[in-house]
C-alpha cells in the first residue's frame, strides 16, 4: 500500500507546541509518511519546542530576521514552500492556527493543488483587526482548506455559518491540551532560582503575560497599573511576568512596576518551564490566545485582558472572563477572585471546553479515513 504523504508546516512557538503532538502521533503510523517543514518565522523560540518534543525537521526555511514585516514573512514563506511542495509532492499539507506562516503554507499548497488540513479551524473574534493579523489569516486559510479540524462545537458552528461543507468539518478538541499533558510535572524544578525561591504554597501568584499589538500603549499601561495596585492591597500576592522581547512592552513594564518588589519581571521562558509555572500559579492574567485554552486544563482562572476573543468557549464555560483593558475593571475582577473563595472555585473547577488530550490521535485517524 502506498503511504499517505503528510507535510506539517509551522513557523512559530505556538504552532510548534500545537503541531508537535500530531507530528509525534504520525511517527508511529505505518500508513503515513511524515514530512516536517518549518519556516522558522520565529527562530529561537521555535527551536526550543523542537528540542522539547525531539522533532528534527526535514526542511527548514530559516526565514527569520529581526524586524521582518508581514509582507516579507508571507513572500519568503510562499517562495520557499513552493519549492519544497513541488519536490516532495505531499498528499496533504497541515497547518495550525492563525500565523502568517499558516496563511502562506495554505496558499502555497493551494497553488500546487495540494489538499490542506487546518488544525484549530473556525476560531473567530468577529473583528478582522483583532487579533491582527491573526483573524484575517484564519479566515483566508479557511477558504483554501479541504479538512477543517475544529477544536470545539462553537468553532464548527462558525464554519457552518460561513458556508463550509459539514462533511469536511471535524470536532477534535485542541492539540494544545495534548502538548500540555506531555510537559507538566508535579515536582518540576526551574533553572531560574528566582522561580524556585517563590513560595507557591503560601503566596497567591498571578502569572501575567501581555504582548498584543493592539494593547501596546494606554491599554497595556492600564493592565499593568491594575496588577500593580492589586499587589499593594494583598500582602500574599506576588506576580511573575515573563516580559515579551518587544522594547515597547518592556518600557511600559519597567515604568509601571519600578520599585514593586512583589512583581518579578523575568525573561521569556521556554515552553516547559512556562507551563510548569502556570501549573503553580493561582490566577492567569493574559492577552494571549493559547493561554485561554491551557490554563483551564490546569484549573487556573483566566482573566482575558482584551476587548474581544476568538475563544469564547472558555468564557461560556466559566473558565475565563473577558475583562477588557480598563484599569478599574481589571482591578475589580482580580479583587473578586482574591477575596471570594466561591468565585475562585467556580472558575477553577469549571469544565475545560478545549478537550481531553486526545485531539492529535483523532486528527490522525480522520486523515487515515479520508485517504482510504
Folded structure, characterized:
- The chain has helices spanning 13-27, 44-52, 70-88, 100-111, 134-143, 153-161, 175-183, 193-196, 218-233, 247-257, 271-280, 291-297, 312-317, 327-339, 341-348, 359-370, and strands spanning 4-10, 32-38, 59-60, 92-96, 115-119, 147-150, 169-171, 204-209, 237-242, 263-266, 283-286, 302-304, 320-322.
- By secondary structure, it is an alpha/beta fold.
- Helix 1 packs across helix 16 (359-370).
- The longest helix is centred in the first third of the chain and has 19 residues, at 70-88.
- The chain is globular and about 65 Å long.
- It comes from Anaerosalibacter massiliensis.
Main-sheet strand order equals: 3-2-1-4-5-6-7
Instruction: Write down the overall mean pLDDT.
Output: 95
Proportion of beta-strand residues: 15-25%
> From N to C, what is the helix and strand string?
EHEHEHEHEHEHEHHEHEHEHEHEHEHHH
The residue fraction in helices comes out at 40-55%
Q: Enumerate how many helices there are, as a single number.
A: 16
Q: Tell me about the largest β-sheet.
A: 7 strands, parallel
EC number: 5.1.3.14
Domain UDP-N-acetylglucosamine 2-epimerase: 25-367
Keywords: Isomerase
Family: Belongs to the UDP-N-acetylglucosamine 2-epimerase family.
Amino acid at each position: 500500500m502506498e503511504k499517505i504523504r503528510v507535510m506539517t508546516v509551522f513557523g512559530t512557538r505556538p504552532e510548534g507546541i500545537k503541531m508537535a503532538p500530531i507530528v509525534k502521533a504520525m511517527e508511529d503510523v505505518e500508513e503515513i509518511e511524515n514530512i516536517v517543514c518549518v519556516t522558522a518565522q520565529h527562530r529561537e523560540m521555535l527551536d526550543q519546542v523542537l528540542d522539547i518534543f525531539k522533532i528534527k525537521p526535514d526542511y527548514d526555511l530559516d526565514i527569520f530576521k529581526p524586524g521582518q514585516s508581514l509582507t516579507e514573512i508571507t513572500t519568503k514563506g510562499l517562495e520557499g514552500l513552493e519549492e519544497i511542495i513541488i519536490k516532495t509532492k505531499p498528499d496533504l499539507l497541515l497547518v495550525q492556527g492563525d500565523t502568517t506562516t499558516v496563511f502562506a503554507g495554505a496558499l502555497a499548497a493551494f497553488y500546487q493543488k495540494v489538499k490542506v488540513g487546518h488544525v484549530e479551524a473556525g476560531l473567530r473574534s468577529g473583528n478582522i483587526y483583532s487579533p491582527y493579523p491573526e483573524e484575517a489569516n484564519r479566515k483566508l486559510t479557511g477558504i483554501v482548506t479541504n479538512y477543517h479540524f475544529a477544536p470545539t462545537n462553537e468553532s464548527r458552528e462558525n464554519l457552518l455559518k460561513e458556508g463550509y461543507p459539514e462533511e469536511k468539518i471535524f470536532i477534535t478538541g485542541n492539540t494544545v491540551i495534548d502538548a500540555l499533558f506531555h510537559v507538566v510535572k508535579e515536582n518540576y524544578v526551574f533553572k531560574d532560582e528566582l522561580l524556585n525561591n517563590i513560595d507557591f504554597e503560601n503566596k497567591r501568584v498571578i502569572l501575567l503575560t501581555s504582548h498584543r499589538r493592539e494593547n501596546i500603549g494606554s491599554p497595556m499601561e492600564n493592565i499593568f497599573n491594575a496588577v500593580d495596585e492589586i499587589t499593594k492591597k494583598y500582602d500574599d500576592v506576588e506576580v511573575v511576568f515573563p516580559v515579551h522581547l518587544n522594547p515597547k512592552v518592556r518600557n511600559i513594564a519597567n515604568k509601571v512596576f519600578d520599585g514593586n518588589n512583589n512583581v518579578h519581571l523575568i525573561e521569556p521562558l521556554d515552553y516547559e518551564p512556562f507551563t510548569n509555572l502556570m501549573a503553580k500559579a493561582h490566577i492567569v492574567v493574559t492577552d494571549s490566545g493559547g493561554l485561554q485554552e491551557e490554563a483551564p486544563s490546569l484549573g487556573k482562572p483566566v482573566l482575558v485582558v482584551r476587548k474581544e476573543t476568538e475563544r469564547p468557549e472558555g468564557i461560556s464555560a466559566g473558565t475565563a472572563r473577558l475583562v477588557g483593558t480598563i484599569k478599574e475593571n481589571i482591578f475589580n475582577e482580580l479583587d473578586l477572585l482574591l477575596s471570594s473563595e466561591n468565585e475562585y472555585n467556580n472558575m477553577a473547577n469549571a469544565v475545560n471546553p478545549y478537550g481531553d488530550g486526545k485531539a492529535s490521535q483523532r486528527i490522525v485517524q480522520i486523515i487515515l479515513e479520508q485517504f482510504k
